[in-house]
Amino acid sequence: MRKTSAPTIVVAGAGLTGLSAAIAAREAGARVVLLEKGSRGDVGGNAAFSGGLFLFCYDGPDDLTSITEDFEPGMKADRIEAPPYTREAYAAELLAMSGGQADSHLVNALAERSLDTVRWLAAKGVRFTFNRTLGAEVCDGVLRFPPGQVLTCTGEGMSRGFEVIRPLLAHAERIGVEIRWSTPLADVLRSEGQLTGVAVGDGSETVPAGAVVIATGGFQGNRELRREHLGPQWETVRLRGTRLATGEGIQAALRAGADKAGTWSSCHSAAVDPTMPSPGSSEASPPFPLHGFWLGVLINRDGERFVDESPGPWVKNYSKMGKAIMRQPGCEAFEIFDQRTAAQVADEFAGAAVPTIAHTIPELAKRIGVPADRLAHTLETYNSACPSGNGIADDHGTTGMTPPKSRWALPLDRPPFVAYHAIAGLTFSFGGIRIDPNGRALGVDGAPVTGLYAAGEAIGGLFYGDYPGGAALMRAAVFGRAAGHTAATETKPTPHAA
Ligand SMILES: Cc1cc2nc3c(=O)[nH]c(=O)nc-3n(C[C@H](O)[C@H](O)[C@H](O)COP(=O)(O)OP(=O)(O)OC[C@H]3O[C@@H](n4cnc5c(N)ncnc54)[C@H](O)[C@@H]3O)c2cc1C
């Protein structure tokens, strides 16, 4: 006689996507085996290095304090002014930043489920706090936020995202997810159109399963795939996060019949401090992001400006600065400031990066190794294109200059002058597996590939040229949760001999 037991779901990757998928599948009644390529010290993937910022929809202060009240009891709704960030606004922003290319089904699902998923994470022990750095202001005892990036998880410094992972890992272990460290997924196994399990390690060991969720991240850690898809200059790029996202999960899914989605030739990449290496284990610090570019100008080693440093708030533009730097001679740049903004940059946007400081532009040029006449000409052109006036204002743009600086255009004329050396840091690749909003991997014919699911950075179709900060952690949790739940509810129980 044959009996049945709960379906076995294999989830590959113990980042935010994989942990969300594993927990959701387990809560839906499945037996869950979570495979992680790294050791326990590598848990968390990119989230462990992240700033912990989540972009989600809310109707107003009550939605926010219902999430933070346990951790910030003093922050009552009447002390907060937070105009709604609606689903429509979220979806419109994602679509606009992708140049209209993002898959509207995924966009709408992300916006629609974002608040509920933040609550789901909070219920599992993830602690959220108000982000007081992204345009928040205190006025008459009231904390005012512009709509959008309002909450981050609690924790210190740039790697506060580890605090998203810690409670989820503990929760997953508590509810009985079986975690196998140092066990990379090598391939997806199929027989007669059905998924039968996965091969792990060197491929000689198998783990039987009724469904697999690919949550192995992007391919940014793979030198050959970077060269093939992003271009030769990306071969030796500095990574901002996990070194273990090398694309095997994506490739296994494509071999199993999944289709590609999104742009494979683009990525999320920020300006970073070149003195810091790519991080090793998830407790290491990532290269510090030099997000202060909007307070000064960016120049290349020829002394020329090459990008609009401030087309909007930096949190909606920093992800393309690395790509702009990568296109410059020597794949390097310098962020230049004067004494109007140097202190703010040092306090908020430079970490331990050591600037070059000089009293004159020719002296600065000599010290950073750019042609003095070119730099002087560039800064004179910039200064004369800035509007007159002394205040720092977001609506001040340059006139008659290419490329323009659309906002925060203040002349650089108060010595000493300050330069930070910057290179591109690669955060994650944009191309991946095609999925539907419930996390089912789709084949080239648009139909689900039986038993195959995917989410997070392993998928394509949401982010293209640009990206709003906070949408990647949100994507990981929303679609990881969806993929795990769908896999568990669609997979038949496993038959076994009584
Ligand atoms: C420095 C930095 C700051 C960031 N800040 C933010 C932020 O503030 N807000 C935001 O929204 N986003 C941010 N992000 C992006 C965000 O962290 C990621 O998009 C998100 O965490 C991706 O999660 P993931 O689980 O899909 O992929 P990953 O985090 O890459 O996880 C994949 C996991 O799979 C494992 N793995 C790889 N291959 C295999 C295999 N073959 N078998 C088994 N396991 C495998 C990896 O070891 C890893 O643990 C940041 C990223 C970085 C690097």
Automatic annotation (TrEMBL):
Pfam families according to UniProt: FAD_binding_2 (PF00890)
InterPro entries associated with the record: FAD-dep_OxRdtase_2_FAD-bd (IPR003953), FAD-oxidoreductase_2 (IPR050315), FAD/NAD-bd_sf (IPR036188), Succ_DH/fumarate_Rdtase_cat_sf (IPR027477)
Coiled-coil regions, chain positions: none
Record carries keyword Oxidoreductase: yes
Keywords recorded for this protein, A-Z: FAD, Flavoprotein, Oxidoreductase
Cofactor: FAD
GO molecular function ontology, one term from the record: steroid dehydrogenase activity, acting on the CH-CH group of donors
Domain FAD-dependent oxidoreductase 2 FAD-binding: 9-471
Stored NCBIfam families: PRK08274.1
UniProt xrefs under PANTHER family: FAD-DEPENDENT OXIDOREDUCTASE 2 FAD BINDING DOMAIN-CONTAINING PROTEIN, FUMARATE REDUCTASE
Name under which the protein is recorded: FAD-dependent oxidoreductase
Organism name: Streptomyces botrytidirepellens
